[in-house]
Structure formats: C-alpha cells, structure tokens
Amino acid sequence: MTLLENIVRIFSKKYNLNDVFTPSTSxxxxxxxxxxxxxQINKALTIPGMQLIVYGHSGSGKTTITQNILNEKKINFxxxxxxxxxxINDIMLDAFDKxxxxxxxxxxxxxxxxxxxxxxxxxxxxxxxxxSEINKEYGDKQxxxxxxxxxxxxxxxxxxxxxxLWILEDFHKVAINERQKLSQILKIFVDTSNKYKSVxxxxxxxxxxxxxxxxxxxxxNNRISEVAVPLMTKSELESIISKGxxxxxVEFKQKVHDDIINFSNSLASICHHLCFSICFNYRIExxxxxxxxxxxxxxxxxxxxxxxQNSDSFKEILDRALKHRNGDFDNTKQILQAFCKSDKEELTxxxxxxxxxxxxxxxxxxxxxxxxxxxxxxxxxxxxDDNSGKFSFSNPFFxxxxxxxxxxxxxxxxxxxxxxxxxxEIMKLLTISIDDIQIKVQQNTKIQSPRVIGNLxxxxxxxxxxxxxxxxxx
Length: 474
Description:
The chain is α/β, with parallel strands linked by helices. The protein contains 20 helices and eleven strands. Helix 11 (254-264) packs across helix 12, helix 13 packs across helix 17 (396-410) and helix 14 crosses helix 17. The radius of gyration is 26 Å and the shape is globular.
C-alpha cells in the first residue's frame, strides 16, 4: 500500500464489525442489490391499492431487500413478527401499538406527517381503552382484548393517515384459519386505498408459493403482487464478502472465499455469520488501520463457533422433524438417513425411494413426507428446488448435525467414543456422507467393526473447540 493510500485509510470512515456483517439483522452496509426484485417491489409500491406478498426460502433475503427499498424510498413502515400461535387480533393490536409514535409526536425519522385532531383524538381514545382494559387470564398467558372500535377498516385508516406501510414478518407461521382472515383484511386495505393511496400490507413468508402465505380470493388476483425471492447466487454471496473486506480493511484468501460460499449454501445469513466470526476471532471489531489478511485455516474456528452457537437450535429442528405424529412411524427419520448416507447433496424422490430403508414407504407417503420436511411444522429441514425437482438439506450445517446425531445413536450399543484430534474431521462432516465418515473413522482408529461410527458427543466437540478456538493476538 502506498503512502497516499495509507493516509486516505487513516482519515477514512471507520465501521463497526457488527454493522458490516449482520448475521441476525438486515444488512445495510453490505446490502446486495438484486435488480429484478428491486423492480418488482418498487413497481408494486408505486401502484395505489396494490398489496404485496414476498415469499421464498428462509434466509433468502426477503426482509433485507424489502426494508432496504423502503428505507431508500424514505417510506415509513412498522413490522409485526408472527409466531405459531399468533392470531389476527394479536397482529392488529401489535400494529396499533407501533403506530403510537406517529400519533403522539407526529414525527418519524423519514417524513413528518400531519394528522387531523379528530383522528388523533380517536386514536388516543382507543389507546386509553387498551391501557385500562382488564386482561383475561388463561393459565400463564394473558390475552389482550381487541376493542370493538378497532376494526380492520379503522386500522387501515390509521395507517393511511400516518402514511405508514405494514409489514407482516413470518406470516407463514400463522395458523391457516388465521391466515384466511388476512385475505378479508387485504380486501379492506384495497378499498381504503381509494382514499389513502399509500395504505399497504406486505406479507412476508418463508414458503414456496404466495398462496402458502395468504390464500386470498380470486377477486384479489389483480390487486396483489407476488414477489418470489430466490436464494442468493454465488456472485451475490461473493459481493457480500467483498464489500465487507473493503469496509473493514481485511482480506480473505480465495480459498476462504470459496469455502464460505459453499458452506453458506446460498443463504446470506450463514455467509454473514461465518465472516463475522472470522473477524471477531482475530479481534477485528472495527475497520483495521493495517490490512489484515486471513489465511486458509481462518475459517475452521468460525465453523466450530457456528455449530456450537446453533447446536440447540439444530437439535430443536431435528427433534421437530423426527417427532412422531399420527401415522408417521419412522418415515421422516428414514428419509433423512437417505440424505445423510448419500454421496449426493441433492436427491430426487426416486433417489430417496431407492434407499434400502425406504422400500416400505408407499410412494404417495414418501411424496407427502418429503414435502412436509420443507414446512415450518417439520422444521424446514429440507429444501425443494422447483427447477431441478430435487430435495436437499436447507442448511449444510443441518446435515452435519444430523449425521453426528445418527452416528451417536448407532454407537449407543457399543459405547465406543472416538475423539478426533483436530477439527478437520468436523469440517469434513459438512461435505461428505455418513458412509465416507465411517470409512475414515475405521482407517484412523483401526476398528474392524463395520458398524462403528465416530461418536461425536458434546464433550468431544467441546474439547476440540477449546483446542482450536483460541483467539490469536491482533
């Protein structure tokens, strides 16, 4: 680096690591534009009365691209996060609560809004009712009562006057009967747009089709814009890494670039997480004064960090996928074993059916359970590609964790524990099949039994983490 470049670097703006790589929040500094999606969303935002359904795989960047476009256009919005037991009443109350700043101060960070004294008085009166209401208690849960005055029409009017859009996050998690009610609310918002042109709902869901988010009536066909957000391409993930390198004044070796992209499996959140961990482990917590170069082995501790940090989540997802429901038997487990033991990353239904334990699963049942494993109820542990007609683990780390879990179960009778000396074997779990691991373990330990597979228990994993995860000095 030349003297001039060093001077520019010294006086240039500094960025915090947690603002550059954002595993759990929407990216701003490293936001990657996706022109086709930008065009679709911008067009829908421009048309009065047009409601939006943004859908796609979990982690594909639906929320990030939506919020970045709204921020760029200086459009005010509120967000309601949905969970499995969320009701339409809960959603309406949340929206009403989040409108409070617009009606108490008449100011937002983007635009100033003028609200009539009559409507403001109506809002504050409802707010007073809600604050003084008597809650009904059911067990340990308190349920707020929706005032009769707070109708969908009234909420649409409050949003329209305040010039605020309403985002419904993870709406696919809401029960089907509650989702059907939103279809009726969308009709009301469309009608309200005749008076307030900016009133809109943006429903976001991690599903394969817009109808899985909101099963709306045919009369809304021309009044709802369906925006499918595909998984990120390798070049888009590369752009995230490159932008982060420039902002933090760091450099990843090309092999590290390639491995991060492969392990991310088209998911921006994993890409951000691995990049964040690499920088954090090397004490890069803001823009470095001197360029820091990360060598080929810098990713190893980041992978272990990710596995360790998410192990409880992975277990919960796997438990949900394997949970016995009426008539399930071990269908889901047999299907997942096929993916673990295959040397392919993606399998067709025929491939899964050909796995020896799946011979007893009827073809119709196999189709049903394969698709169930792509739903929120079953943890979305699998992903389906419409173009190829193939299924795969939605996250390569799910595969690694599932292999480790099945390995320990198969070793339960032998009580054999094999402690790996370094994290190389754990890294390989991300890319090789369970049969490959079995062969490798046999070679390393000279165990003759063909059924003994490495027992990666938590103690062994933690020992490995302690050995490999020491943060080097800056």
